[in-house]
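User: I'm curious whether this sequence folds into something compact or stays loose and floppy. Could you predict its structure so I can see for myself?
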Amino acid sequence: MAGKNDKNDMKTNVMRVLDQKKIAYEHHCYADTGAVSGAEVAQALHQDPNRAFKTLVTTGKSKTNYVFMIPVLEELDLKKAAGAVGEKSIEMLKAKELLPLTGYVHGGCSPIGMKKLFKTTIHTAAEQYDTIMFSAGKIGYQVELPLASLQKVIPVQVADLIVEK
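Assistant: Here's the prediction. I'll summarize afterward.
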């Protein structure tokens, strides 16, 4: 895996943070077709959607914000998520609040490089793969790295977070 890229203008802030911390990663680019689903992104990159994770921002009953990362084909179980962070309940952050709170737009939200560091929890499936993929902080860009590498950049706990099918 390489974190170096000859074209600095193609780097996102997430990639710059990873480079600064000397964390190896691969980056993937796909055509910016506007807001596309995580499944479509994984398909465009010829990647397993089970190891492609989406970043979801929530608000707890205490008004504290939390970040959850789950596989793109899955749905966040709000009760499990609340339990994982010790909240009575949580709800999804309203779309209009995402950019001011995190600095990211919907479809380009990454757990790395948000305006503030929020408690982050990733679904247990991440432990099954050598590497996982998630947004590099800009629509059209993804980074791929081991879970352990992500945990060197930001504190990330692991919990069961998805709706059972």
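Summary: The first strand starts at residue 26 and ends at 29. DSSP finds five helices and eight strands in the chain.
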